[in-house]
Amino acid sequence: MKHYEFLEHTADIGIRVWGDSFKELFIHSAKAMYELIADINLVKPESSFEVRVEAKDRDELLRNWLSELLYYFNVKEILLTDFVITELDDTHIISTASGEKIDPDRHNLKREIKAVTFHNLNIKEKNGEFATEIIFDI
Amino acid sequence: MLQTYNGPLEKIDDYRWRIPKSSMPGMRVDGLVYASNKLIDSIKNDKAPQQVANVATLPGIVKYSLAMPDIHWGYGFSIGGVAATDIEAGGVISPGGVGYDINCGVRLVRTNLTEKDVKPKLKDLTVALYRNIPAGVGSKGDIRVDVKEEKKILVKGARWALSRGYATESDIDHTEENGAMEGADPSAVSERAYERGKKQSGTLGSGNHFIEVQVIDEIYDEEKARVFGLKKDQITIMIHSGSRGLGYQVCDDYAKSMVSTLSKYNIDVPDRQLACTPFNSEEGKRYFGAMKCAANYAWNNRQCLMHLTRLTFERIFGESWERLGMFLVYDVCHNIAKLEKHNVDGKEKLLCVHRKGATRAFAPNHPDLPQDYKATGQPIIIPGDMGTNSYLLTGTQKAMDETFGSTCHGAGRSLSRKAAFRNYTVGQVRQELEAKGISIMASGKGTIVEEAPGAYKDVNEVVDAVDGAGISKRVCRMKPLGVLKG
Q1: Which residues of A are less than 8 Å from B416 in CB distance?
Q2: What is the C-alpha separation between B19 and A96, in angstroms, rounded?
Q3: Contact at 8 Å (CB) between B17 and B10?
Q4: Rounded Cα gap, residues B259 and B96, in angstroms
Q5: Residue B146, pLDDT score
Q6: 3-class DSSP state for residue A29?
Q7: Does the first or last residue of chain A, that is N or C, have fewer Cβ atoms within 10 Å of its Cβ?
Q8: Closest by alpha carbon to B389, among B465, B271, B477?
Q9: Stretch B8-36: mean pLDDT, rounded?
């Protein structure tokens, strides 16, 4: 089942993500972001990295965590595909992300994401389901 | 469907529309949108006018929150927006008002070639540009530097390229700010930004960035065209790129930290992406120092891209670039914040002018113009989509009086990327371009569809509006022949 959809946004790329729990919302957001960059089902979880982030509230936490994960693509040239969260509340997250070095011949790179923006990022909870919009600058 | 704007847009005259400050609580000034009757309908089709209203809430904003005819929905600020704040009256600086791609900009290079010289070699030329100029997602270049050298680039801008033999004094003279803003502070740039920047000097990047071989198909002002060394049927080259990963990271770092300092300065913004801080605060000065570093990196980058373009032309045409007449007409940036003096209610004030998707448009005789362009006014380079036209315009006194010396920056998107994929295929776009005699090379197939000419507003309409409003004047029009897309 798809856990995100594209939004119509003129300049950049926006997605709406949802999850059955707060933790799932985070995982689906990370997967969606990396699916925008490449075919992540072709990426092998060969190396793992611990990613810890703190923030003032949960909207900031999600943005800052995604931004931290994007660093692996933009600087370390690694595509991430698996995300495991061991601790999560509104202001901190401890997670492990796994992936492998970019191989342009194998991974079908789609686009560069410059950044994760704060625009319209507002996590809402309804009947136990969590959802938000996220706009990426591309 | 895109979310549309339903708030007020009052018509002032044929090219100006007001969003009154009474239309939303917190607005300190009116919003003012430059557009023709034809363009205003497409402008209402997304949330950009709402963003113009949001920007009007920024502390210290003076006169208006401005929008150019190519305005479209961005994040925080709209793209195509101009906002100036009075720094002596608590005026703010906002990383979101500059954008992630700090000093994204365009340069126009002239040649003494004509369409007849280039047509038979067009395919080879486009392929050679594709081979010689690193482009695409995460592209890395041959011009790799260590951190020590990278710091020099951040301070010296395009003069770094000059020190390496990749530029001439004439190139530097014909670049906005002479290719480097003074006061860049490399210590305000994070380790991570250095990491993102060090492999990317002399790379085009992806998305809407391009190098285009064009031919001048219409001259509107013979005298100014003569000063710029341009005439009909002449080949020109346009280069569009920015500060790459280094700039994105500077914006990201400071957008994040300024969200945290909003409460410290008691600033309330309707969208966190508008996070800002008083210009004269420590945080404000630090961001400005880091932003200048990214801006200087971008000028050096476009200079390096021009150098690689010159080398490619030399190889294909078998003559030196000097003999091919490949001189820089001008280089402008369209994502930047600048400290500039402007007249506000009869008084000269020092303002922080944010231009996000907007170009500086200084009038004739402005002290910041190069000597040879004092009489013409500042050249303004307006790229269109890859299937239509591009323009060279000049700045006017009216722009100084009304828009803090600013004008539009391009065609402006009208379709979302999702809609572009719904409406076009790679094959269709290629066919459409080939039918017009345009040769294209792109590193990503997706880029071709996302950048389909139909996804943009008509640049001719946008330029008609800024010319009609008098905030810039047409000099000449170019049409594309060969396109290298990131």
Answers
A1: 7-10
A2: 48
A3: yes
A4: 11
A5: 83
A6: helix
A7: N
A8: B477
A9: 97
Tokens of B149: 């050298």
- What is the DSSP secondary structure assignment for residue A90, as one 8-state letter? S
Distance CA B396, CA B140 (A): 39
In angstroms, the separation between the Cα of residue B197 and the nearest Cα of chain A is 9
pLDDT tens digits for B304-314? 999 999 999 99
Helix (H) or strand (E) holding B84, with range, is: strand B77-86
Give the start-end residues of each E strand in B310-405. 328-333, 335-344, 347-356, 359-360, 379-382, 390-395
Task: Report pLDDT for B205.
Answer: 79
Of residues A6, A75, A102, nearest to B196 (C-beta)? A75
What element of type H or E holds A56? Answer: none
Options B240, B334, B354, B409, the catalytic residue: B409
Chain A environment of B273 (Cβ under 8 Å): 117-119
The CB density around residue B383, as the number of other CB atoms within 10 Å, is 25
- Interchain contact, B416 vs A9, CB within 8 Å: yes
Angle among Cα B334, B115, B434 to the nearest 5 degrees reads 75
8 A C-beta contact, residue B137 and residue B265:
no
Tokens linked to B157: 């801008």
Residues of A in Cβ contact (< 8 Å) with B54: none
Contact at CB, B415 and A6, closer than 8 angstroms: no
- Picking from B43, B190, B256, B335 by the largest number of A CB atoms within 10 A of its own CB, the best residue to mutate is B256
**What is the Cβ-side half-sphere exposure of residue B353, based on CA atoms within 13 angstroms?**
26
CB count within 10 Å of CB B368 equals: 13
Is residue B105 predicted with pLDDT exceeding 70?
A: yes
| A117 contacts in chain B (CB < 8 Å) | 75-76, 255, 273
Kindly provide the ipTM of the predicted complex, given to two decimals. Answer: 0.86
Instruction: Kindly report the nearest CA distance between residue A24 and chain B, in angstroms.
Output: 24
Tokens of B368: 């910041």
Is the pLDDT reported for residue B1 higher than 60?
Answer: no
Which pLDDT value is given to residue A112? 85
Question: Rounded distance, CA B26 to CA B99, Å?
Answer: 23
Q: How many helices (H) and strands (E) are present in chain A, helices listed first? A: 3, 8
Block residue for tokens 């600058």: A137
Contact A11 B74 (CB under 8 A): yes
Contacts of B370 (CB under 8 A, 6+ apart): B173, B174
C-alpha dist (Å) from residue B1 to B4, B141, B418: 9, 40, 10
Q: Is A118's CB within 8 Å of B275's CB?
A: yes
A110 in B contact zone (CB under 8 Å): yes
Under an 8 A CB cutoff, do A111 and B447 touch? yes
For B35, what's the count of Cα atoms within 13 Å in the CB-facing half-sphere?
Answer: 32
Q: What domains are there in chain B, each with its CATH number?
A: 10-485 (3.90.1860.10)
Contact B275 A71 (CB under 8 A): no
- Residue indicated by tokens 């809407």: B208
Locate all alpha helices (DSSP H) within B228-274, ordered by sequence.
Answer: 244-261
Place of tokens 């509107």: B220
pLDDT at residue B421 in the model: 86
**What number of residues does chain B have?**
486
Rounded alpha-carbon distances, angstroms, from residue A107 to A37, A66, A68: 9, 20, 21
Which tokens hold the place of B406?
A: 């600013």
pLDDT beyond 70 at B2: no
| Chain B contact present for A121, CB below 8 A | yes
Question: What domains appear along chain A, each with residue ranges and CATH number?
Answer: 4-137 (3.55.10.10)
Residue type, B395: G
